[in-house]
Structure formats: structure tokens, C-alpha cells
Design brief:
about 150 residues, single chain, 1 helix, six-stranded antiparallel sheet, OB fold (Dihydrolipoamide Acetyltransferase, E2P), about 45% strand, globular, alpha+beta
């Protein structure tokens, strides 16, 4: 009789522990899968509000994964956007009326959401200073959460 009570108590404790571990495991998994970051102005090289006046693809990189017959062609686009600055919150270099920012778009990327800009879009841009290939010290938008409403 005593063994049955101890077993039932142990089973209840295990179930309670599992109920606590499932949300923790789920949150850890989401973070590991590349959940979006909220931009921190202390880390950003530049934070400003403005309007996109031009957006263009300046480089395409293709990579074939798998065999020629059945492989997948992976395309990554490097975009350059010209933004008319309306107000500046933070800057690490002198700005003119217009700033050029860069971002990468990958057709297969889902999380974190890729940046999608179009001419006449308005927003608050949180840029990092990064190198892309041979281009150095660029203002870069790493993901969609780095463009917020003004």
C-alpha cells in the first residue's frame, strides 16, 4: 500500500514538472529558430526617421544546393535604399538630407522576417554598421523589426 502512494506522489510531481518545462522548452526553441530582435538604440549606429525615395537591387548571389538536375537554386539579393531623412535620433557619422542603407533579401527566409522596403514608405530606421563583402562600414538593416512606424 505504501509503495502505491509513493508512486502516485512521484507521478504527480513528474507531471507538474513536465507542465513547467513545456513552455520553457517552447520559448527556447523559438529563440533558437531566429526569433526577431527588438532594436536597441544603444547598439545601433544610426536611428532616424525618413521616407524611402529609391530602392534597388545592386547584387544577386545564387547558390545551387544539390545536384544539377534536382537541386535547389538559392537566390540572395543585396538591396540599396536611399532615404530622405526627416529627423535624426542617433548617428555615428554626419548625415546629409539623404542616407543610403543596405539590406539583404533571401526569397526562402521566413524568420526573422526580411526587410521589405518600397518607394515612398515612411519609417523609423534602426541601422547597424556592418561590412558586406568588399563594401565596408555600411548602414545595414538586418531584419524587418529594425524598421518601425515613425
Amino acid at each position: 500500500m505504501l509503495d502505491a502512494r509513493v508512486g502516485a506522489s512521484l507521478s504527480c510531481n513528474v507531471r507538474h514538472s513536465m507542465r513547467l518545462l513545456i513552455p520553457v522548452f517552447t520559448l527556447t526553441l523559438l529563440a533558437a529558430m531566429g526569433a526577431e530582435m527588438i532594436p536597441d538604440e544603444n547598439v545601433c549606429a544610426a536611428v532616424f526617421s525618413g521616407q524611402v525615395i529609391a530602392d534597388e537591387i545592386i547584387d544577386l548571389r545564387t547558390n545551387q544546393v544539390g545536384s544539377v538536375k534536382y537541386g535547389i537554386i538559392h537566390v540572395t539579393e543585396l538591396h540599396r535604399a536611399h532615404i530622405k531623412v526627416e529627423s535624426i535620433t542617433k548617428q555615428d557619422r554626419p548625415f546629409q538630407n539623404e542616407v543610403t542603407v543596405y539590406y539583404v533579401r533571401d526569397a526562402s527566409q521566413v524568420c526573422p522576417r526580411p526587410v521589405r522596403l518600397a518607394t515612398w514608405n515612411r519609417g523609423k530606421f534602426h541601422c547597424l554598421s556592418q561590412n558586406i563583402g568588399a563594401r565596408t562600414n555600411l548602414l545595414v538593416l538586418p531584419m524587418a523589426s529594425f524598421v518601425t512606424s515613425p
